[in-house]
Known about the structure:
- Belongs to the peptide transporter carbon starvation (CstA) (TC 2.A.114) family.
- This is Carbon starvation protein.
- The chain is an all-alpha fold.
- It contains 23 helices and no strands.
Amino acid sequence: MSGIWLAVVGGLIFFLGYRYYSKFIAEKIYRLDPNYVTPAHQYKDGVDFVPTNKFVLWGHHFTSVAGAAPIVGPAIAVYWGWLPAVLWVLLGTVFAAGVHDFGTLVLSVRNKGQSIGTLASKLIGQKAKVLFLFIILLLVLMVNAVFAWVIANLFISFPASVLSVFIQIPLAIWIGYSVYKKQGNMLLPSIVALAVMYIAAIVASYVPALQIDLVRYFGGEGASTIFGLNATSMAFFVWIVVLMVYVYIASTLPVWKLLQPRDYINSHQLIVGLGLLYLGLLFTNPEITAPVTNASADTSWFPLLFITIACGAISGFHGLVSSGTSSKQLNKETDARFVGYLGSVGEGALALVAIIAVVTFFPTAGEFTATYSGFTAASGAGLGVFIQGAGQLASGLGIPASVAATIVSVIVVSFAATTLDSSVRLMRYIIAELGTEYKVTPLTKTHVATTVAVVSSAALTLIPQGPKGFGSGGYLLWPLFGTSNQLLAGISLLLVSIWLKRQGRNYLPTIIPMVFLMFMTLWAMIDQVVTEWAPWNDGSDWMLFSFGAIILVFTFWILITAFSAIAGNRDDSIEKSA
């Protein structure tokens, strides 16, 4: 079967979902009001609350949520066969992710741009708010560790991509000042910036002197350093330090200085990247060599599929971005459909092409099976196979394989870095909110809260544990990232459902995906915490068990509280929609 058919069917389903289902949700369920004064105007401060053109905001929102996860998750999940992965990406995007991202954005806009954690207090009580904030805090901490780990390893594996990624920073700052200080247009400068980045990537692919290869600098593979680490570990450590310094600065700057213009550049990278891959797919017309379903898999896809593919089908982190940053920049309430629902469709399209790139990469089914010999092997190989597979598709347009791999890695790192600094910004908000809740005044200060976020994220990323050794924290957290992410999405859908019920609306479009998601995720998480990670098992892992057990207890506590709230009286502190 040709990979083109997957792209055609997927594109049609995404189009119909946005054209008809999102319109139904906007008009009949969320009931958007074009005259509603959004928080971006009501609390405009030039730092966090900034009215923003919907195309620019879509760029920020999409690139904040579309990090490495919609690539890594699908690239691993094809282990069970391409059909289950494709179905979950398509149906999950249209009926779950779009509704979730759109709904958390509207709920926040209707309530002063407050985060989903704060809204939990109004909807299901103060205790639930604190528990929810702790779950969110643990999730963003894991997001920071996982994405920092991914970026550092891509820099090590593809040193030709480093120059382009770092060139983007001054270019984005230049665009920010040009647009917001001189009232210029962002489109042309961002295209120029993108061209400069790709020229740098192409040149660096052929000029070793422009490749920032820290492993080579520290003596090459196997060489020891004065710290007792090999060259690869030392390079990893340095990249994590550099990334944490960067995200500290990026997450404390006003959004217009770096966040928005860089995200707008990255939105063009999305268009270019998806264009390269889908056009490459058209010209190469590759055959799918991966199995439809994998009957010999060592683990069952049910329910693990639904936590392995989080971003790309539905992700709780998206709700944090919707209610944490995007809601503070929404110019008109009617823009929420374009930003929220279409943002999730963009991520679904990225997840779909990731699947296609992987399942068409191998010449034979036997080579696929050899690489994806077990779930653990699939977890380790997924991202690398995607980059090689994406490079193979792009080479169909006449782009040399080495250049294509560099450009793809630049796109992946750019998205991951965007998610990383948005996540650190969100973590700063949450730490400050907890500081206010418990009257710990220093934590309410921007730089104190950011320092706590950055230091804890770096420490978690660098934890040396298990066979992966130094710097394995981000890698080891991936299984828990998926489960906690999906639990957060389920709780967020529950909050939106409670809000809709109290407004006298039809809440079936939000409660049905919530029930499905919570059932699958709790099943998977209980199985992992009790039968895999617990100290009494052979495959025990104290870090995953501790984090997982805490999140699981907090989730059940919130659900019990929420069930009583569903039957409770309306809370007048929640804004009534028009």
